[in-house]
Amino acid sequence: QVQVVESGGGLVQPGGSLKLSCTASGLSLADWAIGWFRQAPGKEREGVSCISDRGDRTHYADSVKGRFTISRDNAKNTVYLQMNSLKPEDTGLYYCRVQTTPYWGQGTQVTVSS
User: Fold this and answer.
1) What does DSSP say about strands 46-51 and 18-25: parallel, antiparallel, or unpaired?
2) What is the pLDDT along the chain (114 residues), one digit of tens a residue?
3) What are the backbone dihedrals phi and psi of residue 34, each rounded to the nearest 5 degrees, phi first?
4) CA–CA distance, 86 with 43 (Å, rounded to integer)
5) Three-state SS letters, the chain
6) Which end of the chain, N or C, is surrounded by fewer C-beta atoms within 10 Å?
């Protein structure tokens, strides 16, 4: 049984940082591209960033370019999202997805507020 789990969310002040982690059991993430998505209250889920299976290609939404960094450690079966210079509009439930599969995590809440 495959389980994808996100962690690292929390409450942070504007300008602060958080590092999210995505790991899985029952599946080697090293075989797949991984995407981070977020959903704010009342809004549709949007793509934030993704990384290729080997980590040599990354993509970012315009809204997070220069502030967020996606990375992976395949030896630890984990993908990370480093989020710096956080803004209130970054608030939402952050999910990771094993790309092109039905495997999503349950999400981790990020709240940016003073």
Assistant:
1) unpaired
2) 999 999 999 999 999 999 999 999 999 999 999 999 999 989 999 999 999 999 999 999 999 999 999 999 999 999 999 999 999 999 999 999 999 899 999 999 999 999
3) -125, 140
4) 19
5) CCEEEEECCEEECCCCCEEEEEEEECCCHHHCCEEEEEECCCCCCEEEEEECCCCCCEEECCCCCCCEEEEEEHHHCEEEEEECCCCHHHCEEEEEEECCCCCECCCEEEEECC
6) N
